[in-house]
Structures are given as C-alpha cells and as structure tokens.
Amino acid sequence: MKQAMKRLGISTEELKGVEEVIIRTKSKEYVLTDAAVTLMDMQGQKTFQVVGEAVIRDRQEISAPAQPAEPSVPEEDVQLVMGQTGCDRERAVKALKASGGQPAEAILIIMSS
Fold first, then answer.
1. Is residue 68 part of a domain?
2. Element (H, E) at 8
3. Angle, nearest 10°, between helix axes 89-98 and 103-112?
C-alpha cells in the first residue's frame, strides 16, 4: 500500500508531540487535546487528518472582554504621599490611582482639595 501511494506521489507522516488542535468557526471552537494528527502530502497538496475527542465551546463566552486589572499602588508611594500630606492611607491610595500612580501628582491632588 505504501509503495502504491509513493508511486502516486502520496506520502504520510504522523506528527509527534501534538498537544492540542483548535478549529475555530464564527460561533464555536472545537478543541482536541492529545489528538493524533497525520499529515498527508499528495503532490504538494497537504491534508491533515485529526483524530480525537473534541470539546465544543461557544466563542461568544470565550471572547467576552476581560475587565482590566486595577493597577496596584506600591507601598513606598503610599507612604511617601501620606508623609508629605499627612493624609490617611485610603486618601493617599485614592489620589495615587487618580494620578495614574504618580506620587507628585497625587500629592498635588491632596494638597489642592
């Protein structure tokens, strides 16, 4: 069989170490883990054969925009703002977040209010 395929210009190769295969459509995603994948080359035309159990997921659930993480404020900046303005920790953190993490701007915000 292999010799006949070789004469026709067809070669096959099993891809080793495949961890995951994902097929995406507009609305769904088919995820195959530990799939067996065979590459068939027929006169320059490559075809992949995938065998395995698929988990089907809805793409709308996957692509929901994630909430951006709130930036953390370094403790040394909080202490600096508190020391320069005499304000409490909560106010210093709020001013630092409002100023984009810039201690000098946070001090100015507190001093001007």
1. no
2. none
3. 110
Mean pLDDT for 94-103 is 90
Give the SS3 label for residue 92.
helix
pLDDT of residue 65: 58
Residues 56 and 29 reside in one and the same domain:
yes
Overall domain count for the chain:
2
| Residue 35, burial from CB neighbour count under 10 angstroms (0-12, 13-18, 19+) | middle
- Beta bridge partners, 39, equal 13, 48
With respect to residue 29, please indicate whether it lies within any of the assigned structural domains.
yes
Which residues span the domain enclosing 86?
Answer: 75-112
Please report whether residue 65 resides in a domain: no
Q: The pTM is what?
A: 0.47
pLDDT tens-digit profile of 25-84? 999 999 998 899 999 998 889 999 999 999 999 987 765 555 555 667 889 999 999 999
Distance CA 94, CA 74 (A): 13
What does DSSP assign to residue 93?
Answer: H
Structure tokens that stand for 70 in this block: 């709130």
